[in-house]
Design a protein that fits this description.
This protein is an alpha+beta fold. The chain is 29% helix and 22% strand. It is built from 19 helices and 31 strands. The strands form six sheets. Strands 1, 4, 5, 6, 7, 8, 9, 10 and 11 form a nine-stranded mixed beta sheet that branches. Strand 10 (209-213) and strand 11 (218-222) form a beta hairpin.
């Protein structure tokens, strides 16, 4: 199939493919076109190889189940590197190796790594093709599973290649920063096949590297076939490399959802939100308002559930696009009760990884139903019953689903100019201290809130109940350069935003003395969003406190929800001693980033300390 490569008109791309062919030594080369015919061919091949199981077409049309190797089930942050000339460019929150040393190491790893396998060439685009922020990448991979997932998660195939070639030849006008430029992405499972050697359903290598070169804008991934380790357009390009590009060109690549909220009068506001894992990010992005709000005319829509690229638009506001075209979500915990929108999205054309298989050829995972089925095949391929002491689905089991199947997809989700952002929300899982919602005093205070956000660890995870794990902007594993410089970039961007969004912090997880949740959450969170939106419009009241602007019960719509004024007061309670401990617990982060921490954040911390004293 290597003759397809001869048709490529983009000379740097042809050179890149030739170099990878010489290094990786594949048996064949296949240029992906993103067609339905290609999907059908690759899925059939993987079903025959045992990598995929075709699900019941009546229950889950055109959908498949994959089971990974038990050693290849998640991101490997300890094997993820930012490689540059100097260590301070990567910063203390990233793993670093000097770039030339890593190049030599990778050459050795990738030499002959695709023997006996096909090298797939995937032209893909993050963001709408005609967006000024659109980024084109070309991934070479020996994983057909990665090809199928990239088809769902990105604009992929013939159209992207044609655009790239026409840009290079000057045949089309392009708003992209560097027309004709692409980001080279190299991926291998690291399992070459010798002549006559039998393959396994999920090839991988115990030695794993996920490597980013910010200066040359390259991504190299070795050893893993799973998720973001293999789908290099997702965290690798859309966050780690894109954050470097964004810093250089005056925009932001953020680990944020984008949500639209339409009021009964037809006006729509867009909100972005950054949340650490297990804090309800996906549920919020797909929020379904309670019946009383729906009857009144409130509607919600989703632009993106995971990543937002934001830039100062000519209208003076921050605009945001979702660079992805699909959802790569955690399955366990997703149900018709917790997230009916997601469940409806998963009805067809999906790939499920490491979930359980039902006896009638459908999928199941923990908390999907109130009662588990009497019998399943678990994620390792073994018989499973409710009496087993092991989970049926892996805790990090995933679904890959096309975004355009989501019933609440926003009409402007592919608008190349993005959507205007009215509010930026930060949040964490906190049993105490943090109120349900409060508003930052200004942009600088908002960045401080984002920089110090975090969630409490559980006793099982950390051994100390209440200890807070800081995850600045939910970007700790994803910022592709020094985190202190990242904060500074946020401050610098303010100069270019004439009509800035307002910043808020939310906490759906505050508990009472008996351990029960004080706020019902899920669809009722629309009440918090209503107050946030009306604050942005100057239509809602708040009073100034030492931590920010906060509402009282009279400022909230509590009709029809099981929260009275007294309980609302507990939700919003402010304890100076708890907040003093909060400030003290931020010291580790400030010390780690001391040399690059912007002075504005130091000042904000001092101002808060003064207000608390």
């Amino acid at each position: 199939m290597s003759n397809q490569i001869e048709s490529i008109q983009h000379s740097p791309l042809k050179t890149f493919i030739s170099r990878m062919k010489e290094l990786c030594q594949p048996k064949d080369i296949y240029l992906c076109d993103g067609s339905d015919k290609e999907w059908d061919s690759l899925t059939s091949t993987l079903v025959e190889a045992g990598t995929l199981i075709r699900l019941n077409p009546e229950k889950r049309p055109n959908s498949f189940l994959a089971r990974s190797a038990p050693s290849d089930v998640a991101r490997v942050e300890e094997r993820t590197f930012i490689c540059s000339k100097r260590e301070d460019q990567a910063g203390p929150t990233n793993n670093w190796m000097e770039d030339w040393k890593m190049v030599e190491l990778l050459k050795e790893k990738f030499h002959g790594c695709m023997k006996g396998r096909t090298m797939y060439v995937i032209p893909f685009c993050m963001g709408p093709l005609d967006s000024p922020l659109a980024k084109v990448g070309v991934q070479v991979t020996d994983s057909a599973y990665a090809v199928l997932n990239m088809r769902i998660m990105t604009h992929m195939g013939k159209d992207v290649l044609e655009m790239l070639e026409k840009e290079r030849a000057g045949k089309v006008s392009s708003r992209r920063t560097k027309p004709g430029f692409f980001i080279p992405c190299v991926h291998s499972v690291g399992a070459p096949l010798e002549e006559g050697e039998a393959d396994v359903p999920w090839p991988c290598n115990e030695d794993k590297y996920i490597v980013h070169f910010p200066v040359t804008r390259e991504i190299w991934s070795y050893g893993s076939g799973y998720g973001g380790n293999a789908l290099l357009g997702k965290k690798c390009l859309a966050l780690r490399i894109a954050s470097n590009i964004a810093r250089d060109h005056g925009w932001l690549a953020e680990h944020m959802l984008i949500l639209g909220v339409e009021e009964p009068d037809g006006t729509k506001s867009y909100i972005t939100g950054a949340f650490p894992s297990a804090c309800g990010k996906t549920n919020l992005s797909m929020l379904v308002p309670p019946e009383s709000y729906q009857k009144a005319g409130w509607k919600t829509s989703i632009v993106g559930d995971d990543i937002a690229w934001l830039w100062p638009h000519e209208d003076g506001k921050l605009h945001a696009i979702n660079p992805e075209t699909g959802y790569f979500g955690v399955a366990p915990g997703t149900s018709w009760e917790s997230n009916p929108t997601a469940m409806e999205t998963l009805r067809a054309n999906c790939i499920f990884t490491n979930v359980a298989l039902t006896d009638d050829g459908d999928v199941w995972w923990e908390d999907m139903t109130q009662e588990p089925p009497a019998h399943l095949i678990d994620w390792k391929g073994n018989d499973w019953t409710p009496d087993c002491n092991t989970p049926a689905a892996h805790p990090n089991a995933r679904f890959t689903a096309p975004a355009d199947q989501c019933p609440t997809i926003d009409p402007d989700w592919q608008n190349p100019d993005g959507v205007p952002v009215e509010a930026v929300i930060f949040g964490g899982r906190r049993k105490t201290t943090m109120p349900l919602v409060y508003e930052a005093f200004n942009w600088s205070h908002g960045i401080y809130i984002g920089a110090t956000m975090g969630s409490e660890k559980t006793a099982a995870a950390a051994g100390q109940v209440g200890q807070v794990r800081r995850d600045p902007f939910a970007m700790l594993p994803f910022t592709g350069y020094n985190m202190g410089s990242y904060f500074r970039h946020w401050f610098q961007l303010q100069k270019h935003v004439k009509r800035p969004p307002r910043f808020f912090h939310v906490n759906w997880f505050r508990r009472d003395v008996d351990g029960g949740f004080l706020w019902p959450g899920f669809g009722e969170n629309i009440r918090v969003l209503e107050w946030i939106i009306h604050r942005c419009k100057g239509q809602a009241r708040a009073h100034e406190t030492r931590i920010g602007w906060v509402p009282e019960a009279a400022d909230f719509n509590l009709e029809g929800v099981s929260v009275d004024a007294e309980q609302f007061a507990r939700l919003m309670a402010f304890d100076p001693e708890e907040w003093k401990q909060e400030v003290i617990s931020q010291s580790e982060l400030f010390l780690r980033l001391f040399h690059t921490m912007p002075k504005q954040l130091v000042y904000e911390r001092e101002l808060l300390s003064a207000r608390l004293s």
